[in-house]
Amino acid sequence: MSEQDQNPYAPPIDAPEAPTSSPRPRNVDVATTGQRVAGAFLIANALFVFIEAAITTTTPGSADATPGGAIVPAMIDLGIGVSLLSGSAKALKWALVRVALGVVLWTGVQASRGEWVVMAMQLVLGAAFLLLLIGEAGRARIAAGASAFGVYALVSLLGIVSIVGGVNPLAGVTGALRTDLDPVPGHVLTGVMTRYTVTTPDDHWLVRKAEAAKKDNALVDRWLVRPDKDAHLLILVEDLGGANLPVGAYADAVLDGAKKVQKDVAVLERHPLSGHLDDGVFLHTTSTLNGLSLEYYYAVISEGGHLYQLITFAMRAAFPPLAADFRGMIDSFHAPPAAPALP
Length: 343
Hints:
Helix 2 runs antiparallel to helix 3, helix 2 packs antiparallel against helix 5 and helix 5 packs antiparallel against helix 6. An eight-stranded antiparallel β-sheet has the order 1-4-5-6-10-9-8-7, with helices on both faces. With 343 residues, it is of the alpha+beta class. It starts with a helix and ends in a 12-residue tail after the last helix. It folds into two domains: 133 residues, no CATH class; 150 residues, 3-Layer(aba) Sandwich (Protein Transport Mog1p, Chain A).
């Protein structure tokens, strides 16, 4: 008989503790749930790139025309994504390297161009992947990563829609966030290479900072933008150095240059430019560039020892309401008189 049986007031006898077993370590070669979700998102991101590449005609000589410029990274994303989604964590370190390089390099490039919306989307994408890839993400982290990728995916889909439909739904937002634009004092823009002037119709038209404009087109002298409509006026100036080539030949050269970088160039109008009947040519064209349907007005003017090109363009669907602005700015162009010849 035990002490407890002999004395009912004796304290109870503790039961022996059950042996405990240490938790089994997680197999690091097996992808976690969050890492599998990240794999699915890497595959989706690669598909966005492939779709855009399929509907985009790249411009020869541009950065996007570099072989493998976007396709090779997308193929890497696809391979890593398939590996993670299948449950293997062997590609995890490469996924982390890819995300880190994308965040550091791509955001740096976009920041240098003042493309803050694109940069922000790259940061959102990087954050989504890091939330899912690092460690063993719980439900909260998986939900946060999925939400971040959803924002990025929505913007990507809008970009694809803009290419297919020819209208950029984010033009006003991206323009408002750019830092390379300045107002035009008194609505009168003055040239750099020569002191020509162009009058803008209202405050919607802004001028790009010289260094930003030169990065995109080394030949441009002035670049006007209407961000809310994604509309542009580029002014190029060439010193003729005493040459006297007929302005019609210059207009032919402009068209030939356009056909080298644009597809399906159609000339809708060609006639002497109002106000410059002897030294100016007006061109109205449509074409496809980078998969976008665009419409252009060109004015080619030979005056004062210089050749001037005024190139206005916008997406074709947005062009008709802008036509009056474009014609008004072209008609307002005033070149300085030629310098007097030295005796």
